Structure formats: C-alpha cells, structure tokens
Amino acid sequence: MKKARELPAAELSDLSAVRVVSADRAHTPFWRDERVLRVFAQLAFLAIILLLLGYLVNNMLQALSRQGLVLGFSFLSSTAGFDIGETLIPFDRSQTYGRAFVVGLLNTVNVSVWGILFATLLGVVVGVARLSQNILVQFLARFYIEALRNVPLLVLLIFVYAGVFLNFPQIRQALRVGPVMLSNRGVYLPWPIPTETFDDFRLFLLAGVIASAAIWVLLWRRHKGSGPAWPKWVWSAGVGVGLVALGWVVLIAQPPLALEYPEVEGLKVSGGKRFTPEFMALWSGLVIYTAAFIADVVRAGIQSVSKGQVEAARALGLNGAQTLRLVVFPQALRVIIPPLTSHYLNLTKNSSLAVAVGYPDLFSVSGTILNQSGRALEIIALAMSIYLSLSLLTSLFMNWYNRRTRLVER
Amino acid sequence: MSLRPATAASKADVVLPPPTERYPLLGWVWKHLFTPWHNALLTVLALGLLYLLAVPFAQWALTQARWEVVVVNLRLLLIGQYPLEQVWRLWLSVHVLAFVAGLTIGSTVRAGLWRAVPILAAPWALALVADFDLATRAHLGALPVVGLVAFVLGRLGHVYVRRHVIGLWVIYFPLFILLVRGLTAEEGWLPVVPTNVWGGLVLTFVLTVAGIIFSFPIGVLLALGRRSNLPLVRWASVVYIELVRGVPLVTILFMAQIMLPLFLPSNVTIDRVLRAVVGIVLFTAAYQAENVRGGLQAISRGQYEAAYALGLNSLQTNLFIILPQALRNVIPVLVGQFIALYKDTSLVAIVGLLDLLGIAKSVLAQPAYIGTQREVYLFISAIYWLFSYVMSYLSQRLEKALGVGER
User: Which of A2, A22, B39, B133 has a CA 20 to 30 Å removed from the CA of A284?
Assistant: First the structure.
C-alpha cells in the first residue's frame, strides 16, 4: 500500500488519501476504495460529456444534411461580391471571403488599439481627478464614473452614433472647431503629408531614435552602478527631439511634412484625414465607457498604497512629483495591472458591438458573409476562434508585463 | 470617569465629539477650491467644462427636446405588447418587488436614508403629474406605501429579516418569471402569455432574472469543477470557462439564435426568447464560475480538514461548510456580475428581440418620431442607470450588514 505522500499532490487528494490509509488497509473493497472511485467518476463524467456532445453533433449533422449542406472552409476562397466601407488594406467586391475576413480583423485590431490607448489616458486622468483635493474636480470625476458605469455600452454606442455623430450638420454647413471639421459625413482632421524631402528627414528621425535610446541605456547603466541619478528621460528625449529639430532646420527650404487642412469643395471635402461617423462613434463610445472602469481601477490602485509610504517618501526629501513617480505609482501598478488587463480584453471583445453602428469590424463582416454564403457554423466558429486568439494574445502580453512589475517575494 | 458611553440621564458625563476643523463658508470654499494656486486653476477649468456641457444640454432638454415621444410610447417602452387585461400580474410583481426591496433596506441600511426619499416620491409624483388612467394611478400610489410598510417591518425585525433577506430574493426571482409567463391554459386564472408579445423593460427584466437564476448554479458547479482533484473534470471546466470568457457575448447570442435549433432534434422548436436566455446563461455562468472560485480560494484549508475530520463527505463539506462561507465573501462581486448581466441583456436587440433597447429602436422607426433619437435613448439610458445604480447600492449595504471581511 502506498503512503499518503506518494499520491498526487493536488490540494485535496492527499487529504482523501489519508482517509484511505486510515481505513482498514487490507480489506478495503474496491467499491469503497477512493482511488478506484476516482477513476470511475472520471470515466462516467467523460462518458456523459461525450454522449451529450455526440447527441448535439449528430442532430446538427442531420439538420445540415436535410438542408443539403456540407461542412468545410473552401467557401473562403470564393468571390465576396460585397464592398466594405472602411478598409486598412485594399479590398473590392471581386476579392475573396477570406480577404474580407482579414479586412474585418484589421479593423477590429485598429479600433481596439486606438481604443485601449485613449481609454487608458482618459481613465488615468479621471481616476487621478477622482482623488483630487479639489472638491469640484472630484465631483466631476465621480459623476462621470457613476453615470457611465451603470449604462449599457450598446445604448451608449447607439446614442453617440445616432444622437451625436449623425446629428452634425451637412457637409456644406460643416461645423468648424479650430482646425477640426465636423459634419454628418465624418470628422475631418488636418493631417501631415510627407513632401519630397521626407526621405532625407527619415534619416534624422532614425538617428534621433537611436541616439535617445542609447543615451537612456547609458544613463540607466550608470544609475544602476550606483552612479548619480541623472534625469534619464529628460536627457534622452532632449537629444532625440534635438536631432529631429536639427533635421527640420536643415531641410527648412522645403519642410519634410506639410500640414494639410480639410476644405469643402462643393459636395466633397479635400485634404485632411477623414474619420467616418461609424468609426468615431465606436471608438469614442468604447473610450469613454472603458475609461470609467479604468478610472475606478486606477483610483483603487492609488488608494491601496498606504499613507505611510507617502509620508516616508516626503520625509526622505522627495518632492510631490517624485513621490508619485518613484513611490506611489510603482506600488499602485501592481494592484492596477490585473484588472486593467481584463478591461483591455473587454474593450477588444466589446468592439464586436460595431455591428450596431455599422462599422465593418470582424463580427460585422462575418455577419455579412454569413448572410451571403449561409455558412453559419463555419463562420461563427472562425469568428469566435479569432476573438479567442486575440484575447489570449492580449492576456499573454499583460501577464508578461505583470510578472515584470509584481513584487519579488522572498 | 467611567468608560461607559454617556446616556441622556447623566448629562455631566456627556462625551463631546473631538474638535473638528471648522471654517466659515468662504473659508471652506477657499480651502477646498483655491489653495494651493494650481487648485484654483483646476477649479476654473472644471467650472468652464461644466458650463460648456451643462448649459447647452439644459437648453436643449428644456426647450428643443420633444419629450412627448417618450410620454406617448411609455407603455410600449415599459411592457411592450403585453396584453392589457393581464397587466395586473406585472403590477403584482412590482408590488412584491417593492416589498422585498423595502424589507432589504429596512433590515440593512442604517444611515443615509434620505437617498430613498426620491425613490419613494417618484411614483406619487408620476401619479399626480402624468396622464394615466385611474388603475395605474392607484397602483403607483400604493407602491411607496407597500415599500414603507416593508421598510418598517424590516426595521422592526432586522436581526431576523437580515438572515433571510437573500432567501427572499431567491424566492422572488422565479415568482417573477412565473407571474410574467403564466401557468394555466387560455381559460385559467393565470393564462400563459406567449413570449412573442413580451417586450420593453419587462423583457429586459425577464432576461436578467432568468440569467441570474440559471447561471448561478452552473457557475458554482463550474467553479467546484475547476478546483476538483479529478483531472478530467478540472480540464473540462477550465476549457469551458476560458473558451467562453475569450469570446464576445454577441457571438454567443448569435450562435444561440442560429445554431441552437440545429443542435436540437428537428421536432423540437425553441422560441427566440428562450434561445437568448440560453446564450446569456452559458456566457454568464463562465464569469460567475471565476467569481465563485475567488471565494473558494479564500477558504482556508483547515475548513476542509475539519469537515473531513468530522466525517462529512465531499458533497456535505462543500454544501454545508465551504460554499456558505465562500459565497458570502463574494456577494459584492456576484451582484456586480448580475448588474453587468442586466446591462448586457441590451445585446439581444442586435439579434432582433424587442427588449428595452429593441423596442426603443422600433419606436424610433415610427414616421412621426424621426429625429428623436436623443430623447428616446436618454430616457432608456436613465432607466438602465436607475436600476443598476440601485442594485449596486443595495449590494454595498448588504455587504456591510453581513459583515463581509469582518468576521
């Protein structure tokens, strides 16, 4: 008879093993032997699951054969026959369903990345404002958080789309806020356009990036070797920006980037960068909704740093900004990152609500393909597995980052 | 001096509260809004922002907005096409809701009761102001009374009531579904109302409540499965939970609408509301499982060992020892998940059901009300906001009253 220690070390198994050992050793009948029972329980569980799955799949195959459908992904290479409003890569109706999927996926990634970026910025600002000593600022932040957390995202998205972005005036009476132009056909921003000298300017850009990275590493090494703590960011950023500025000055005869302003010409707009109402509604809705949650996470994180830490930092002579940067934030980050990850994941998954405002993201394009080809099972499976891999990728990255920042326990 | 708390009888012993910082009003404003100097800058910025946002909004809401679209379609938005002669069942469920909520508040909430005043006053204000028929007004008038009576009862027997408050909610949810759906055939006293006429806020509530009732036990089972020492059971739970948590709800709802009929035998038909419920339950169960697992992980191992030492088997240990403690620890998280579920039910509008959002869209499709999106969507946002705010408030109170994290 084995001893308890040699049994699998899962949390409870050694407990049950203790009881087995303490029972009458030689004469435990097999129907009361936990080791046998465990195997039987799992076999029974497996059998039930397999039976259930088999039953469902069998029903499905029968239903498919009644409709004369065959499973398979060969339809992905047939012609799409529909256009997509917004694409990051060229696409037209003569291309395949497969490429349409890729277009949708890129749109999803596009809106998620920009959404995550701006939601984080807004969320941190609101979260810090929530802890402001200024009562008015605190009230505004609190109002923002409480108002948005308790409203469904879908309602917010549709409200922003139909109530705000489609409600802007027509193109001829377009609203102008500074250089930005607002109309019901989209938001137009001035956009830098590279000129002939841009290729030369690129060299300066490259040199700037390399130099600032090198300086940062150098100063960091010196600092780690107990050298003086130079302001690393100031120096590296200063040198980088300086090099780029030098490039601009050298090429001043023909500036490498020209800012192009949107202009109304009859019924069209020339110049500038257009953001469609669909993209703007989805992006801004995701940003302001997710920022409310991120703000709460940031607030909780900052509050989790005990007051003694701040007092100790002040006693050591750090100023307010240093206390925040060197003492409070690194510790708050440990509390903030895990929930922040799940909000990033939520934002990515929530971008599938694009279908309600007509932005051609992965899910919305899938819906169109489904209507055209009737391949429900394959398309839903494909869309789900892509979302799943996006989620897994995001959480892998955030877990890696979390491992880097968490407390090293001894 | 004695350390006993002072009573009214012995005035000499009155213990004064510790001195606080007191300012005149202007001093208070000065301290909180204008010192140090950058605070003054922030104040000016915030005031400017407030002005920029609030003034145009107030102007629009008071002068330009066509609120009559909400008034005319109020019944549609709230109960959809529910048959008029059966509306008493909805009222009954609302009264029971007021009663249970009153008991909950009465037995758990001690301070800050003034917050309840607007909630109590709202039905009376509605009954007085809006143009309803007599029955509606009577119901509205009775609602705060029911709530108040329940509140007093809860306050009187708070020790006893508090213990059973969760049980009351557990009973209320199925009762609500039963009342909405009905029990008997056409001629009976509680005829079945077909799901195709369910709509508006009622459908939103039905989806929420059905989601809560069914996702919770599945979630608990999945959580126990994930911590099981049988590898097969553990892997199956992990795969299910991670699969579902990795995909958006709308894809699952879509799958439920399109695929569910395929998975079932051809002679079984399943109506669209039920399909949506299945999708919502499958989705929420995975999230609830993770929340419950959090509670389970907080239970110390000694609890298991003690239970085994007393001779309880696994089922008894989990049911009587582990789960009651684990679930109590995660009540706020569970309620938070239910609030998320309530908000997520709006996604069924994408698959074509007429819940609060879906019916708002169909109201906006009427030619007479083109261009009133802001009014309608603001109104339904306010409804969504109100209920989820109340839910989160009640769960915070319940958490305090049950002493979560204190024992």
Answer: B39
Q: How far is B380 from chain A (nearest CA, A)?
A: 8
CATH class of B198-368: mainly alpha
Question: How do the domains of chain A map onto residue ranges?
Answer: 4-67, 97-151+277-405, 198-250
- CB-based contact B32 A134, cutoff 8 Å: yes
Q: DSSP letters of A276-345?
A: -HHHHHHHHHHHHHHHHHHHHHHHHHHHHS-HHHHHHHHHTT--HHHIIIIIIHHHHHHHHHHHHHHHHH
The alpha carbon of residue B248 is apart from the nearest alpha carbon of chain A, in Å, by 5
Q: Where are the domains of chain B?
A: 73-193, 198-368
List all residues 6 or more positions away from A305 whose beta carbon is below 8 Å from its beta carbon: A327, A328, A331, A332
Instruction: Return residues 267-306 of B near A (CB < 8 Å).
Output: 301, 304-305
Give A281-331 pLDDT, tens digit per residue: 999 999 999 999 999 999 999 888 888 999 999 999 988 788 888 888 888
For residue B351, give how far its alpha carbon lies from the nearest alpha carbon of chain A (Å). Answer: 10
Helix (H, G, I), strand (E, B) or coil at B101: helix
Name, in order, each residue with C-beta under 8 angstroms of A72's C-beta and a sequence gap of 6 or more: A378
Q: Kindly report the pTM of this predicted structure.
A: 0.84
Sign of CA dihedral A156, A158, A164, A165: positive
Helix (H, G, I), strand (E, B) or coil at A176: strand
CB contact A49 to B (< 8 Å): yes
Class of domain A97-151+277-405: mainly alpha
Q: Tell whether A341 is within 8 A of chain B (Cβ).
A: no
pLDDT-based confidence at residue A12 (cuts at 50, 70, 90): very low
